Automatic annotation (TrEMBL):
Lineage: Bacteria, Fusobacteriati, Fusobacteriota, Fusobacteriia, Fusobacteriales
Post-translational modification: An intermediate of this reaction is the autophosphorylated ppk in which a phosphate is covalently linked to a histidine residue through a N-P bond.
Domain (Polyphosphate kinase C-terminal) ranges: 180-345, 352-468
Name of the protein this chain belongs to: Polyphosphate kinase
A GO CC term attached to the entry: polyphosphate kinase complex
Naturally occurring in which organism (per UniProt): Cetobacterium somerae ATCC BAA-474
Similarity annotation: Belongs to the polyphosphate kinase 1 (PPK1) family.
Signal peptide limits: none
Positions of the Polyphosphate kinase middle domain: 1-153
GO biological process, one term: polyphosphate biosynthetic process
Reactions listed under catalytic activity: [phosphate](n) + ATP = [phosphate](n+1) + ADP
PANTHER family: POLYPHOSPHATE KINASE
Top-level taxonomic group: Bacteria
Pfam family, one: PP_kinase_C
EC assignment: 2.7.4.1
Length: 469
């Protein structure tokens, strides 16, 4: 790096080598990016022995820097701000174009973090701070290799079967196959837990609805779907078969923006009515509504999920699927889609609790009810399972419940800003985090309600962005 060879653009997430090299004119710095088009994990001959690509390159740098003396070598990578700056007030087609443009510009986002392996020289660190223009607090030393995603490449190694989980085979119910699911739902609701019970039942519901001549319309929200989504395939088929298909594709699903733009265009070309939600909000709800003409009239079938309509992650994430023909639930689902398409201002929900208009106030009311029950000598208990608990308002309300004597159990997979065991504040609160083979993704809200227990499933965490938009 010198006057004629300036400091290079560093790609977000890419691993780099920083070198001190000596030549006759003095000491210089050099940067070598580890290419991502080559497998990083290299299997060596004989047995299960591996080496990382960056180690191979490091040990052959003398060939690249022929004639230089290499004094010092270190590893680092940067993370860039990859939030998109989108004008949501532009038209639908403009929004698609805007997102495509912003995704391409993502690689030019400002650096926000530098990770480096301990042992990088102070001289190299000072040089990086000067060139990247980040304060020392944004530099993080790491023990061991940077970016551990290479470990996925070791999952299928031979000879270590005792270290592997047995293959999970989700239970598939034949009585729910094909049109049978409509007959079953006319008699009872269905609750499935993935990945222990097959997500294929969700895919099959869309598939059979696309083919069923009695189905008039399909409405669905899509937040994240797989790269080769069968649900997209069947929604397109439904439109081709003359069904009225309305799909809300959330274009602002973080890091899925480019893929969702692609799906939106494909669905539109197939004849689906594609919408992008409400300005200023992400649509995180997982809802499928099927409208079917039967002998005794028009019926609504609803699927609600705690997880995405993603057949790939459904094999790895713990989530619930709820299928119902409940009339009030069907009316609520219709209201939801009418609201999302901009044709309804109704907020008279029967059974759904919808953010940002109702969820926070409803949770407050439910927690206050437990407090009141305890104050009257009754039963009061709250159990909440979420991915994150960071909202100050919910935390304060749970503290109030604890102070009143309500037993509070929280199962939080990720960030939790609530403190337990503080006398006079949170001694009645217990917090757990489940870490196992599958990623805990479901959200569950339980309230004892003085013996008349209530249980709610949802896709919302106790985070401000989920509660208030």
């Amino acid at each position: 790096i010198d006057t004629f060879r300036p400091f290079p653009h560093l790609n977000s997430g890419a691993i780099n080598l920083i070198l001190n090299v000596k030549e006759k004119d003095g000491i210089s710095f050099a940067i070598v990016e580890i290419p991502r088009v080559v497998n990083r994990l290299i299997k060596l001959p004989g047995g299960n022995n591996f080496i990382l690509l960056e180690e191979v390159i490091k040990n052959n740098l003398h060939r690249l820097f022929n004639g230089y003396e290499i004094i010092d070598i270190g590893y680092f990578r940067i993370t860039r701000d990859e939030d998109l700056g989108i004008d949501e007030n532009s038209g639908a087609e403009d929004l698609l174009v805007e997102i495509e443009k912003e995704v391409k510009n993502r690689k030019w986002g400002n650096p926000v973090r530098v990770e480096y392996i301990r042992g990088v020289s102070n001289k190299s660190l000072e040089f990086l701070k000067e060139q990247i223009e980040l304060e020392e607090e944004n530099f993080y030393p790491v023990l061991g290799p940077l970016d551990l995603t290479f470990l996925w490449g070791m999952v299928d190694v031979d000879g270590v079967e005792e270290l592997k989980f047995e293959k999970n085979i989700p239970r598939y119910y034949k009585e729910l196959a094909g049109e049978n699911i409509f007959k079953v739902l006319s008699k009872r609701n269905i609750l499935l837990r993935h990945p222990f019970e097959s997500f294929d039942h969700v895919v099959d519901l869309v598939k059979i609805s696309a083919q069923d001549p009695k189905v008039l319309a399909i409405k669905q929200t899509l937040y994240r779907v797989s790269g080769d989504s069968p649900i997209i395939k069947y929604l397109k088929k439904a439109a081709e078969n003359g069904k009225q298909v309305t799909v809300l594709v959330e274009l602002k699903a973080r890091f899925d923006e480019e893929r969702n733009v692609k799906w939106a265009r494909e669905l539109e070309e197939a004849g689906c009515h594609v919408i992008y939600g409400l300005s200023g909000l992400k649509t995180h709800a997982k809802c499928l509504l099927i409208i079917r003409k039967e002998e005794d009239g028009i019926k609504r079938y609803v699927h609600l999920g705690t997880g995405n309509y993603n057949d790939s992650t459904a094999k790895l994430y713990v989530d619930y699927s709820f299928f119902t023909m409940d009339e009030e639930m069907g009316i609520d689902a219709s209201y939801l889609f009418n609201k999302l398409t901009g044709f309804s201002k109704i907020d008279d929900w029967k059974k759904l609790i919808v953010a940002p208009t109702h969820l926070r106030d409803t949770l407050y009311r439910f927690i206050d009810r437990e407090i009141e029950n305890i104050s009257k000598g009754g039963l009061g208990k709250v159990v909440i399972k979420v991915n994150g608990l960071t909202d100050q308002g919910i935390i304060e309300k749970l503290y109030d419940a604890s102070k009143a004597g309500v037993e509070v159990t929280l199962i939080v997979r990720g960030a939790c800003c609530l403190k337990t065991g503080i006398a006079g504040l949170s001694e009645n609160i217990k917090v757990y985090s489940l870490v196992g083979r599958f990623l805990e993704h479901d959200r569950i809200y339980y309230f004892e309600n003085n013996g008349e227990e209530e249980l709610y499933l949802g896709s919302a965490d106790c985070m401000r962005r989920n509660l208030d938009g």
